[in-house]
């Protein structure tokens, strides 16, 4: 069942990359994040180390927070002008 989650994250990431190329450039950051998150989950499945607990989880949370802040600031700066 975890593989389905990985495939879902990659599908969302690839779709966002497609949309970013087509018209919305702001979607590149979340698209890369979803592809990265899918790879993180896949690494969690295949390695003996649990990447969703302990220090690894804090690294993932920090990256997630960083992506959220950067995307939010870019969104605010781009759409504030309109």
Key words describing this protein structure:
82 residues, mainly alpha, 3 helices, 80% helix
What does this protein look like?
This protein has 82 residues and is mainly alpha-helical. It has one domain (2-80). The chain is built from three helices and no strands. The protein has helices spanning 2-22, 28-46, 55-80. Helix 1 (2-22) runs antiparallel to helix 2 (28-46). The longest helix is centred in the C-terminal third of the chain and has 26 residues, at 55-80. The protein is flat, with a radius of gyration of 15 Å. It starts with a helix and ends with a helix. The mean pLDDT is 90.
Distance between the termini: 43 Å
Unreliable stretches, pLDDT < 50, 5 or more residues? none
Count structural domains.
1
Q: How is the main sheet built?
A: none
Shape: flat
| Helix amount | over 70%
N-to-C SSE string, H for helix and E for strand:
HHH
Structural class: mainly alpha
Strand tally: 0
Tell me the radius of gyration. Answer: 15 Å
Mean pLDDT: 90
The share of residues in extended strands comes to under 5%
Count of DSSP H/I helices: 3
């Amino acid at each position: 069942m975890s593989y389905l989650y990985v495939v879902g994250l990659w599908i969302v990431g690839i779709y966002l990359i497609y949309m970013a190329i087509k018209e919305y450039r702001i979607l590149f950051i979340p698209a890369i994040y979803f592809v990265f998150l899918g790879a993180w989950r896949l690494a969690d499945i295949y390695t003996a180390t649990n990447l969703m607990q302990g220090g690894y989880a804090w690294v993932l949370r920090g990256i997630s927070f960083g992506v959220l802040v950067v995307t939010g600031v870019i969104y605010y700066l781009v759409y504030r002008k309109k």
